[in-house]
Amino acid sequence: MTKETIIDESLKLFANYGYENTTLANIAEAVGIKKPSLYNHFDNKEDIFLHVLYDVGEREKSHLMNQAEAIQQDSVADHLHEIYRVYLEHMAHSTEGMFFKRVTFFPPEEFADEIKKVFLMVEDCMTEIIRPVFERGKEMEIIRPLSTDTLTSAFYTLVDGLFLEENFYDRDVFEERQEASWQIFWLGIKNPEH
After folding, report:
1. Which candidate, 1, 2, 40, 48, places its Cα nearest to that of 24?
2. CB under 8 Å to 161, separation ≥6 — which residues?
3. Is residue 99 a contact partner of residue 48, using CB atoms and an 8 Å limit?
4. CA dihedral sign, ordered 13, 16, 19, 21
5. CB 145 within 8 Å of CB 138
6. Residue ranges of the chain with pLDDT lower than 70?
């Protein structure tokens, strides 16, 4: 049994049931080993959680970079919209997204600083992806001449709001809200002369 398998199974449990409601016995059962065997790989549940947290952070960074390479749209509007759409789709329908939602909305108190650190690490990766698109849009005078920091902050506020809404609406309603939000966002940052 590998350390990676324990991390993968723990991720599913933490994503679905939270840190507090997941026991070492649950993890051992999901992996298919006896509970004492977990100690061959990890010191305790806290150690497993931290490994899962940082592993998810690295997976998310890798996913974002891979998607960014695949998304090469001609227009600035289409490029930004596709980044937005792919990011929200992944956060809404992946185990990693479910885990991130759970630990950011309901962080286990003892890991609050670590969770924030990983969240910001992933956000920094996303910023590296969207900043050049905003800057290209400003250079082409397609996007209003606002600071890139302002544009980036508005993008995150939009995404974070939808991140929360995804918990309350079925997929069709969520997708309608996601598209409506994008239309208003784009109208707000688009240079009215274009």
Report:
1. 48
2. 181
3. no
4. negative
5. yes
6. 1
* Token duo for residue 87: 């990011």
Residue 93 CB partners (closer than 8 Å, separation 6+):
none
The CA distance from 38 to 44, in Å, is 8
Type of residue numbered 81: H
Q: What pLDDT score was predicted for residue 2?
A: 83
For the whole model, what pTM was predicted? 0.88
Alpha carbon distance 104, 115 (integer Å): 7
User: Residue 95 — φ and ψ, nearest 5°?
Assistant: -65, -40
Q: Which residues contact 5 (CB under 8 A, 6 or more apart)?
A: 31
What pLDDT is recorded for position 1?
A: 56
Q: Could you give the CA distance from residue 70 to residue 86 in angstroms, rounded to a whole number?
A: 11
The length of the chain in residues reads 194
Q: Which residues pair with 190 in a beta bridge?
A: 143
The whole-number pLDDT of residue 105 equals 85
Q: Other C-beta atoms within 10 Å of 79: how many?
A: 20
Question: How does pLDDT run across 64-120, given as a tens digit for each residue?
Answer: 998 888 887 779 999 999 999 888 888 888 999 999 989 988 899 999 999 999 999
Nearest to 1 by CA among 50, 52, 51, 36: 36
